[in-house]
Design goal:
Number of helices: 5
GO molecular function: nucleic acid binding
Keywords: Membrane, Transmembrane, Transmembrane helix
InterPro entries: RNaseH_sf, Tc1-like_DDE_dom
Protein name: Tc1-like transposase DDE domain-containing protein
Strand content: 15-25%
Organism: Rhizoclosmatium globosum
CATH superfamily: Ribonuclease H-like superfamily/Ribonuclease H
Largest sheet: 5 strands, mixed
CATH architecture: 2-Layer Sandwich
Strand order of the largest sheet: 3-2-1-4-5
Number of domains: 1
């Protein structure tokens, strides 16, 4: 309902204007984990028996991860307590681009980064810095998580942790 055809066409024009391979692409996004979302929904017990554990759960601070995935899996992850702000996000992106040794200048390895349209991702200073390093950022259309395979990875991780 909220997907705009013009956004999808812009994304397709940008991706088609580049000479990319699977080894160029890096998808990055943040994911948060906290007690409330990761508690088993049905309690801790064998099915059909009485609950083994009852009581109050201690609320721990939220932990957020910034993950970078390529065609061979997760390349790097950064964590922070709470949520990522623009400064933390920029610092982690610069560390990955400069210090990891996994990112080359375009058209090199991991040089095309695909991000969602979150406001912390759209910093003009970060975009210019990434372009100076030879990294090309491309923004996904709004309300289109099905274009971003990292969302499926996060879903599988959360499902595994919830177990």
């Amino acid at each position: 309902m909220h997907v705009k055809e013009t956004d999808i066409m812009r994304f397709m024009r940008e991706i088609n204007s580049l000479d990319w391979t699977l080894y160029n692409l890096v998808f990055l996004d943040e994911v948060s984990f906290d007690n409330r979302g990761m508690i088993c929904r049905r309690g801790y017990a064998v099915k059909g028996t009485k609950l083994m554990l009852r009581g109050e759960y201690q609320r721990l601070p939220r932990v957020s991860l910034l993950c970078f995935i390529g065609c061979n899996g997760i390349l790097e992850s950064f964590s922070t307590e709470g949520t990522f702000n623009r400064a933390k996000f920029s610092t982690c992106c610069k560390k990955f681009a400069l210090n990891s040794g996994k990112v080359g200048r375009y058209p090199g390895l991991h040089s095309v980064w695909i991000l969602d349209g979150a406001s912390i991702h759209r910093s003009p200073h970060l975009i210019m810095h990434l372009r100076m390093l030879g990294v090309i950022p491309i923004f996904l259309p709004a309300y289109c998580p099905f274009f971003n395979p990292i969302e499926m990875v996060f879903g599988m991780i959360k499902k595994r942790l919830r177990r």
